[in-house]
Amino acid sequence: MEDYEKITVVGRGAHGVCRLCRRKDDVFGQKVIVKTISLDGLTPEEETAIMGEVMLLKRLHHPNIIGYYESFRTENALSIVMQYAEGGTMSQMISEQSKKGTSFPESTVLNYFTQVAIGLEYMHSKQILHRDLKTENILLNKKRTIVKLGDFGISREISTFSLASTLVGTPKYLSPEICEGRSYNQKSDIWALGCVLYELCELKKAFDGDNIPSIVIKIIQGKYGSVSSHWSSELHTLIKSILDVNEKTRPLLKDLLTCPLILPVCLSINLDLGSLPATSNKKVQLGKSNSKILRTQAVSSR
After folding, report:
1. Where ATP is bound, by residue (predicted)?
2. pTM of the full predicted structure?
3. What's the mean pLDDT in 153-157?
């Protein structure tokens, strides 16, 4: 840490702390986040998991993924240096919007949703599940025009896309199959993406309750909160299709990114960010979605 000037603590966890720092030899004074994790008392399995996070971060290079710079280890701690997102979290932004008493414009909702979907699609193309996608883990740049997925502490690489079944993640974003203890794949990340979309629309969690069992029951039954009538019918359909309790009929990311409602937004975003989704040549084919519901939507981006 001697190469970094500590500015302030921005977060604490059970085994570590996140600090806003500045590299001392950087003439531009660029701010970074340094996540320092104590290795004291950790089991070999926990230490391996932490090192796995570093290896995952090294592999991810995308405008919608928080940037990794370097990592270094001392005798009893590991420090990971990452990109600083000055715009805060999507959760904070939603809370601020809620206090204003008005919804985001639909075009804004679709823009943010599509960026998250693009970042998630990139992770899946690397055979990595996020496993803890939530608005608290979605970060924004200073102007809040670009969103970035962060916090890969419980992400898992899918070896040859085999199914993972460990019960992890934030309860309010867990998919029905996880709540029932069944195995899962990318479709559980997509369910969480649907929860994020609902939250962007309604400025509240899709599934809430007084305790975890009550939340789990709502998730298994697919009983999310009502969706306001002022949103377009296409957006209503999109939310319903993603929050499908049947993982087999829940759309794939390629279905979402190429459906008539999202594809124009996706193309516009990629022109701005200068990158296309992984294997985009296969995906930008109008009308080839496997999802009948999404394929028949009319284009709308109110």
Report:
1. 35
2. 0.82
3. 48
